[in-house]
Amino acid sequence: MAGQTIQDRLLAARHSLAGQGLAKSVCKATTEELIGPKKKHLDYLIHCTNEPNVSIPQLANLLIERSQNASWVVVFKSLITVHHLMCYGNERFTQYLASSNSSFQLSNFLDKSSLQGPVGVRSGYDMSPFIRRYSKYLNEKALSYRTVAFDFCKVKRSKEDGVLRTMNSEKLLKTLPVLQSQLDALLEFDCSAADLTNGVINMAFMLLFRDLIRLFAGYNDSIINLLEKYFDMNKKQCRDALDLYKKFLIRMDRVGEFLKVAENVGIDKGEIPDLTKAPSSLLDALEQHLASIEGKKSAANTPTQATSTHRTDVKTGVSALSSTSSSFGTIAQQADGVEESLKQAVLAEEEAVLNQYKAKVNSPVNGTIASVNNPFLVSSEPIVDLFSCPAPATQTSTKASDDLLQLSNPFADMFSTPMTGSQTNATNDMSTPLANNWMKSNQSCPAPTATGASDSGNKKVLTGDLDSSLASLAENLTINKVTQPPPVQWNSPKNTPKPGNGQPGMGWSPQPMAATTGANYRPMGQGMMSNPSPFVSTYGPMGVQPSCIGGSAVGGGNLGMTAPSSTQSSQPQPVLDPFGL
């Protein structure tokens, strides 16, 4: 366990490949290396608790999952990380642990993998009891927050506006048992200087020492508040208050033992507060006052004298406890000041790095590079207009190499370049409509022309704006309206009125169908071809449609038939019956 194991490295690499940065940081903070979690990993996790886009439940569940590991080092370091986040992280982390049903189920934890460690180092079997006690304290710390809705280690402490010092009697009697339970769980860690043999348990002890200073400072303030209100309580409240004070005296002795261990492991004496006990006469005064309330007679003095004596003893005891409260409060404030100074130093360092980055970005050289590489950066160069016409050039280069670096608008050059004679003829040919059976000849059906192209009085079609240019094109592209011939009326035998004065079935009999064989058989198309056909059937290229024929459209004509000449079109044409009747 001298360093990170291969399993630690593989697990971190797997989280890196999966893009799970939070899981990777948790894995880095809880490796099997026999040292406490590194500060850089803890600082990153503290930063994550302050980020609104980081899932606090996910972070807590990752740490709880790591506490289920078989290695005592991983489990101990996961508990230390949770404790560190509860002390220095955002309060949202503690709120989640208090509100969720998840807790550390380590009451039966035992690591038998390493029964005997190196010389001078305790084995996993020896560290397992401390892991069980430590997890119990963290569970009790979260439970206390759930009960009173604040952290005893972070509550405001002062004589004038302290939370526990100014609390009313009824609420104080309900809050003190919760504070005592958390303090009991901390004192049950019960380690000696001989047990602190590695960096993991040493870091856990330092976090517990920090909590002890703040917890007992609030505990002492609560007892002072209780003693000041003792003579104004009823009989039941006095009985409960006396019981709480007796428990306070027992815990004060245990706190003294914990502070001795802290002094033996090398903590500076200036960081260890002075513990001043109240005189024993204070307990006697409280018991005698309760006896007088319950109706028990006292042979010492009259009730008035006894009450005056008791109040004097309480004031003496409160004065002694106030010195203890002052000592613990000073140490706690110094620790808070050190933590605040470290926090300000970190913030100043981050601000310096940010200012350095801003200066680097805003520098002339780097600013130019950034503007070139950033496609989303707004450029000061004018935007190229695809529909604008460039200014006429005085001299046009004829060499192709001169146009290699030309940055002019290719679309504007296309519109502004004059058309040659061949291009004009090609355009006119394309504008001429193709002949088809449903249109007139070129003389009677002229090609559509754009009025905007021929009318010089119209406004400019192509402008600098794309929308206005398209609107102008749509407005000016109108087809010249010419007089259209009336449509051809087809006469069908079905539509021919029958004799019989319009009465169906009167004076009309169906005609028998002519036989298709015999001498008198005449095909249906011979009526249409009674006169020699003036048309020349030529097969043109594929896709060419038939043209207009003699001013009347003939459906079903052969493809590729050309229009007749002017002399042929002037001859009268017989009326054609498509049915040959």
Keywords:
elongated; ENTH_VHS; mainly alpha; single chain; 581 residues; 18 helices
Order of helices and strands: HHHHHHHHHHHHHHHHHH
From the spread of the alpha carbons, the general shape counts as: elongated
Query: Main sheet, how many strands, which sense, barrel?
Result: none
Q: What is the beta-strand fraction?
A: under 5%
- Structural class, from secondary structure content? mainly alpha
How many β strands by DSSP?
0
Low-confidence regions: 430-457, 526-570
Distance between the termini: 113 Å
Helix share of residues? Answer: 40-55%
Cα Rg: 52 Å
Helix tally equals: 18
Mean model confidence by pLDDT? 73
Can you characterise this structure?
The chain is mostly helical. Helix content is 51%, strand content 0%. The protein is built from 18 helices and no strands. It has helices at 6-17, 21-29, 39-49, 56-66, 72-88, 91-99, 124-148, 169-187, 199-228, 235-264, 280-293, 303-362, 364-373, 410-416, 421-431, 451-454, 466-476, 566-570. Helix 7 (124-148) packs antiparallel against helix 8, helix 8 packs antiparallel against helix 9 (199-228) and helix 9 (199-228) crosses helix 12. The radius of gyration is 52 Å and the shape is elongated. Mean pLDDT is 73; it is low at 430-457 and 526-570.
